[in-house]
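Suppose a classmate hands you a notebook page containing two proteins, each written out with its sequence and a corresponding row of structure tokens. How would you begin to make sense of it? This section walks through that situation. The first entry is reproduced here exactly as it would appear on such a page.
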Amino acid sequence: MRIQETMNLYDKLQILTDAAKYDVACTSSGADRKGDGTGMGSCERAGICHSFSADGRCISLLKILFTNECIYDCKYCINRRTNDVPRASFTPDEVCTLTMEFYRRNYIEGLFLSSGVLVSPDYTMELLYATLYKLRRECNFQGYIHVKAIPGASRDLVERLGFLADRMSINLELPTADGLKALAPHKTRKKILEPMRLVQTRTAQNKQEIQVYRGAPRFVPAGQSTQMIIGATPETDYQIIQVAQSLYQKFDLKRVFYSAFVHVNEDSALPARTGEGPPLLREHRLYQADWLLRYYHFQAEELLSEEDPNFNVLFDPKCNWALKHLNYFPVEINRAEYRMLLRVPGIGYKSASRIVKARRLGILKFEDLKKMGVVLKRALYFITCSGKMMYPTRMEEDYIARNLLETKEKLPVEVRNMGYRQMSLFDDVRFRENVML
């Protein structure tokens, strides 16, 4: 369906914001850029104010596709070539107008720009580069920009775009090459990983340049990320977190995002439609495991194995690991090493740091731990203070598991309700009246 010729900017905005809702962008900026007084906006390391939709995705940025036209026919994508959906494309001027006007009205604090592949990867990247160049150089926008690079585009275009964006991401799409071949045959793992390696290499070079020349332009200062669709192909959780771990170790990624597969197309190659909706609880468990990989010094092989390849739906990954390794517990709060404290359910990396600092000044008690942010209703089965447990506890898996189930994990609202809806700028009834574009 093509109605491009009759559209105004508002019509395009409705189509291309809705088309972008499956791209994940729930990140803080991760970069610092002070306004110099001549332009609009600034970028603080934690300066992006987040609003989360019902499905847990961030809408603090103006999140749009440049175009939902696409030459590819990925079986899972709503914007695939063979789908009969309304098509639209912005111009670079239109994206700049939207970004600046929304910023002035305090609707947004930055831009998340992705795109379908129009004509060819290079052609699309030229349009994205022209948009960001105009926004930075002509509009003098100094806020946060996250851009999706197009796999298959030339190295020169990727590099030029990286000097204008704060964060760049190249979507892995699916966890394995076999899954990619089955559902996105026009894309290859090689074309996806090549720009990732380029961003990694160029970022390292840029850090050295900045040390020598303080005024050197910064290349993707907030780093790179990627996204995987979960549930469209039959990979296990173990395979998925192994892929994520490899990406963190080999490509220095800042984040791997997991997007629960949403059934938007009918295709025999896709999983059969069920009444359960997107696998949001599975997505939630993968994010919890990802946090353990990045901040808690866990390895994928510790959390899962080929014999036990999927996460427990009843317990979060750290709690499940603790139940399977009771021989490590209980740990003495006043003597345990920092890394061991991190493995205790109910103790986060901030509270673990507070414990290590506070116990230099005296003996810690259970009431002290609560003040430090420790969730005692989970931690009490795994710790001692001065050799004593908080309550008499049997160190048996079944006993502890039953007690933990009674406390009930507080799941995010999107997992509890198992719904899928993204908030929109158009939810504000004043939007059409107040924004005259």
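The notebook's second entry, a different protein, reads as follows.
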Amino acid sequence: MASDLDLTDSHSGSEKHLGHGHVRPDGSRPGDDVRVGATARRVVVVLALLCALGSAVGVALLWPPAGTLTTLREQVASGGSVVTDVEARAESLQQQTCPGTSLDRLPDGTIPASASCPILTATVLQGPSKGQQVQVPVPAQVAEGGITPGDRVDLGYFPPTPGYDATWQWVDFSRTRPLGLAVGAFALLTVLVARKRGLAALGGMVLAGAVLAFFMIPALLAGKPPLLVSVTGCTAIMSVVLYLTHGFSLRTAAAHLGTVSGLVLVGVAAHVAVGATHLQGLSDEDSAYLGQLTSMATLRGLVVAGIVLAGVGVLNDVTITQASAVWEVREHAPGASFTTLVRSGMRVGRDHLASTVYTVAFAYAGAALPVLVILAVTDPRWIDAVSSSALAEEIVRTAIGGACVALSVPITTAVAAAAVASASVQRPAAGGAPESHDHAAHPVRDHGTPPPSPLGRRAQRAAEQRARRRHP
């Protein structure tokens, strides 16, 4: 029975942490003493290799035609939609008044006779116009937020055309430097704290960005099937990132299989849900502008791909945790059966799933907070609020992500339990020689007999070396 498993440390009596981040003092990880049988090892490795190979073949078959983005850029440029962003330095802000327009409409619906029209004087810092001072109108809301001399801003430059002079317009504040500092601090702290694993995780993020930029986005814009593109691209990312971050092991392979299963479920569910709810991806001005540049089919495909991509990180965390939990349960209970391993692993999985679900919900609620505020102010009926495009998209993303994560927990637990159900546990004996605990010869321990504290493989090797020096 799962309740018979003793998962306490024999020295401290404290409960063991069954997560993937737990490391023993000797540097080993929970479950390192579990020895999986040859048959189970081959099955898990072959299935994981098939997933990785399948994703590589899928990427090759779905690879977009050369020049997809270049062709789209040329089409946008021919329509006069391209604006060159140029960095400038704010010099002064002058408050002026001008006749009110519909953009200045007051909360009661009236249009004021006059409105504030701030004018910014800025010095261009790059390009052919470097050093030139220009004046551009600034939105009143931006000016109210504050623009001080010396602020770096981005201005849009429209080159001269027949009958029209070159013009400048306000774009936004230039955030390159503070964003660079924030990203640099994040990367530095990640490496300092997590060391090699942190560096590997950063490398995985770079790889994910490359797959997204060079494969997924061009393929979606080229009209490739969004379901296949998103699932294939995310599977290719995880087939590398999982092993790069967590190392090559059967635990990682089991988590890999669970992650791929979850990605397939997320992709199919997203494809069905987007069609059933008629989500067009027109929830904001940017997506509406993108719809003018491409097609509505491409826009719907981006919604599907966005839902799949959002579920990758959550799936990775859950599956790795479940695989590690099952391995550690096996290490502490060499006689546990497949059913016992599944039940014990699911106890960890239920707690993790519960926290993950509301974490995902809060993350999406934070992203949609401006929409929620607008809905609260306008006070519509709640059914209308839920049915709005912006909110419905977040609800679908949360529901699908949570449901598929819930299904990935038992799938990963079952895969990991099947892999270690017949495994043996090897621990070093008192004299330094490895001691094998076969599950058939040693039944599950009860609470009255705590298991010996596992030393891990590093400590085992050190003990063997000391034994050889004593008895050459």
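A careful reader of the second entry would note: Strands lie at 34-35, 84-94, 97-99, 114-116, 119-124, 133-137, 152-158, 167-173, 424-428, 434-437.
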